[in-house]
Amino acid sequence: MMSGILVISEHRNGELRPVSRELVGAAVALKDATGEPLRVAVIGEAPERYVAELKLAGVDEVLTVQAVVDAFDPEIYEASVRALIEARQPSLVLLAHSVDSLGYAAPLAVKNGYGFATDVFGIERDADGWVATRAGYGQKVNIEVDFPGRSVVVLTVRPGAYKPVETFGEPSVSAVPAPAVTPRSQHLGFEEPAGGDDVNIPGAEFIVSIGRGVGEEDNVEEFKELADSVGATLGCSRPIADAGWLPKARQVGQSGKTAAACKLYVAMGISGSVQHMAGMKHVETIVAVNTDPEASIFTIARYGIVGDIFDIGRELRNHF
Amino acid sequence: MKILVPIKQVATLDEDFEFREDGRDIDPDFLIHDLNEWDNYTLEEAMRLKEGPGGEGIEVVVATVGPESADEELRKCLAKGADRALRVWSDALEDADAIGVARVLAALARRESPDLIFAGVQATDHACGATGMALAGLLDLPHAAVVAALDYTPGSNSATVRRELEGGSYASVRIDCPAVLTLQLGINTPRYASLRGIKQAAQRPIEVLDAEALGVTADALGAAGSASRVRRMYVPEKGRAQMIEGTPAEQAARLAQIIKEFGGAA
Amino acid sequence: MRSSPDRSGTARRHWRELAERACTDEAPFAAAALYPYAAPRERAGLEARMFGERRDRLLLASAPFVAPAVLARLAALDDGGAVQLRLARNPATSAAALGALWRADASPRLRQLIARHARTPRAVLGQIAAAAGEIETLRALCENGGVAAEVLATVSERRIGVLQRLLAVNIATAEDTLLALWAEADDEAVRAQILLHPHCPDVLLATVPASLLERRCLARQQRAPRALLAELANDRDAAVRRAAAENPGTPLAALVANCFDADATVRHAVAARRDLPPALAGCLVDDADARVRRALARNPACPPELLVRPATDADAEVRRAAARHPHCPHELLDRLSRDEVTWVQAAVAYRDELPYAVLRRLARSSDVDVLAGVARHPATAPSRLARLAIHDCPDVRRAVILNPRTPRMVLRLLRQDGYALHRAMAVDHPRFADTDRWRMRDDPDVQVRFRVFQHFARRDAMPAAHEASVHVTQLSHYQPHPPKEHMETT
What we know:
The structure holds three protein chains of three kinds.
Chain A: E1 5-8, E2 11-12, E3 15-16, H1 19-34, E4 38-44, H2 48-54, E5 61-66, H3 74-88, E6 92-96, H4 99-112, E7 115-120, E8 122-126, E9 129-136, E10 141-146, E11 153-157, E12 172-176, E13 185-191, E14 206-210, H5 217-230, E15 233-236, H6 238-242, E16 264-268, H7 274-278, E17 285-290, E18 303-306, H8 309-317
Parallel strand pairs in A: 1-4, 1-6, 4-5, 5-12, 6-11, 7-11, 14-15, 14-16, 16-17, 17-18
Antiparallel strand pairs in A: 2-3, 8-9, 9-10
Helix pairs in contact in A: 3-4, 5-8
Chain B: E1 2-7, E2 9-13, E3 31-35, H1 37-51, E4 59-65, H2 71-79, E5 84-89, H3 98-112, E6 116-120, H4 131-139, E7 143-151, E8 158-164, E9 170-176, E10 179-183, H5 195-203, E11 207-210, E12 229-234, E13 242-243, H6 248-265
Parallel strand pairs in B: 1-4, 1-6, 4-5, 5-11, 6-10, 7-10
Antiparallel strand pairs in B: 2-3, 7-8, 8-9
Helix pairs in contact in B: 2-5, 3-4
Chain C: H1 9-24, H2 29-34, H3 40-51, H4 54-61, H5 68-76, H6 80-89, H7 95-101, H8 108-116, H9 122-131, H10 135-143, H11 149-157, H12 164-169, H13 175-184, H14 188-196, H15 212-220, H16 226-232, H17 238-246, H18 264-271, H19 278-284, H20 290-298, H21 308-311, H22 316-324, H23 330-336, H24 342-349, H25 356-363, H26 368-375, H27 382-388, H28 394-402, H29 408-414, H30 420-427, H31 434-439, H32 446-459, H33 463-468, H34 484-488
Helix pairs in contact in C: 1-3, 4-6, 5-7, 6-8, 8-10, 9-11, 11-13, 14-15, 15-17, 17-18, 18-20, 20-22, 22-24, 24-26, 26-28, 27-29, 30-32
Domain Electron transfer flavoprotein alpha/beta-subunit N-terminal (chain B): 23-218
Keywords (chain B): Electron transport, Transport
Family (chain B): Belongs to the ETF beta-subunit/FixA family.
């Protein structure tokens, strides 16, 4: 009988990623509810350096797996997590829903026939086993999934969904033998995004974008300053670029750029044409500010503000 | 050389929708279909290689697992220059999750034996982010996820990719080929199909295959081949858009808080 | 409109073909484009296509570009909750149709949407204001952009605390109501909002309030007494000073000191004033903050002879601002058209009146922002437009379509454009010919077909039928035209 919760921590560039402590937060709550033991694993070239940080309250055991390189490699992680599962026989394995886990969680699950769901923000156990909740249809609905017939369930957990554990405990520490892997890819190095003044809509994580609501060209300046003061890249919808008020490089949407790396998108005075939404509707947190409460942009927004963009913009600047 | 581009017909929802009677999905009348946003980029990347130096012999094959309505999305790809389109379906696949779909694509890939597979990082509807990499696992091919730049010379036995990481930085990785890559939005600038291309694509054949005929056995098909099962679907209590109420000063204060929380998290 | 339209022979043949196509079109929109103009005997077939499937009824109910007549017909079909909700959310739904949707058994969500719809009949809103029970419905009513002051007064009389804010924000709220709200308000945010309201009672504008938020809002109130605004222009809070400096009601004499304000945003507000005297412009032209210089350079009140400085500024955005000044002298434009930063050149290209030599030089650029400006310039030659119409960059091609003077022969090049939006915009271009439009009736894009069908239906409609189409809105999803203000600039 499989029992126990296994958390796989993440690190990058020698630092434990904070989401690891959130995973422990999720697991501690489940441990309290089910009584299953909680183990946290770290995989790396010198995994012991992360152990102290992982001795978090509620954790029963910290597991280390030695890897040939410290940087993430999907095949090393996949084989290591498989070895960890075989060594400790957990019923639930929690990974962060992160760029790294996107590279190995699915291959791990599919090859071993584990139950599997991604980007979950709710986990429970009932008589039938583990039950996870994730979102669907562009976050408009919640979907509850279960895993009939699966003795091991692997879930990737949405960052920010659980409170991190910040206090420490006294778990035991063990090493799990590293599986033999011949990686077929090689980490060459990290690169920072190109700096400079060039407008980079696809690479921007935070975009404040303006649409027809700005009314006239002279008003664009106000939002340029707003974007500067809140630390955002200024984007715009097509009519603004077509009018020559902002460069085409700032245009978001089907005929412009895609806000590929964006995590927070504040749409001001943008009604939400299908063309515009094609370039940003995937963004996790969209805030829409519009005077029309039924503007289409609200249908994809996480937060909505019905109001005048100039009033909101002016007040917002007082906070920065 | 051959590049396989698996695509997905996604469904979007307008506000005020209704659920199916069993409560496990949306009433299909409310679903509006489209090609997954990511797939514009995967197809473009394949076309970019085909039209680039040394790409003369490249065949770009688009494939999907879906019912007849998905032909529309395959035709969009044909209109942009894909050489061939394949669709696999069987009614049992109605209940397949991303893993279940990957099993069918794997059977198809074994038949096609492509040199590269480009899948989208995720799909706009359910954003599982699992199909492409599960496919890599089933085929036991080298793989990299969330690729924002690709450097590959046709015929070469390795590629250099730039994976987009959290926080805006990148990891550069060399990977052996054949490989499966999931590509990120923004990796290129997708083209529009020409009007002529669209009209010609309407006449082009789409090969329709039955999952069983591809060798997907009953124990790997649909619900049986999936790693999860939908119990129920519901509208979250708070709804999707949380309206920020109050006077503009109060609304702006809350927005400032959201921005600061984001800054803290990044 | 119900009389049978009298169409010429060709028009009749066209109409027949369009009607046949509409009835077999894969989407219901082509039928919806014809419907308002169709004779009664033709309507049954179109209705069958539009309303036969629930999927199509749902699509039509939320389409803001279809004619109110289609939505009204749909509202009259008793069709369950989802279609009604979408109709109540659709801005094109008519008052009569909304009145029909308002029934005793309406769901809370439907009541809420009707309460918020700008076209809901006043009688219905009045009933809601007087009697509605759920707070969500009343809240929606207070957010309604088309609601009458009396209706809001009725809501206000019900003394519901959580609605105070929304009533203070709604610009339709009348003076009396605001005064009553002021008396009840125990919250500075609500009071501040009342001070900002265009109908704020004069008696509230007599003294400088204590709270910062109220001072900020009062400083923005154009009707505030000049003496009060002068006082606020010297407030200890920079945001208050900025607001006062932005307020056209603030006397200039009170703002001289603000030209030297320690806070750049205050100086910026002064530099942007439309009534800025040349002397103050002179004080600001060498300001240390680039944003101040930018605001000044684009301010029509900045004397053109002063623009030499910003036109040679080290900051490219300042130079661009000079290039956008409505009276920027030609010799400066000539220099700016050769600026090292293309975004500055683009600012020149987007000006309607340019020396020919400057326009010709800009046309040789390879930058898409500059070329887009050239492409929509009224003086650009057709031969050049023809070249730009096949440019690789869609933004440049679109600028050719946005140029109202682009001749038909050039537009024809765009009939085959790969981007459906461009084809849709070409259909609406005044210089596009009907023979070209007619060839697009089988366009693969549903929105393009909708426009073609709508064009011919309108053209061939009886004058009476035409009246019915006054409210036919543009395909709002496409938003083909830039903000109309652009047409008036430069």
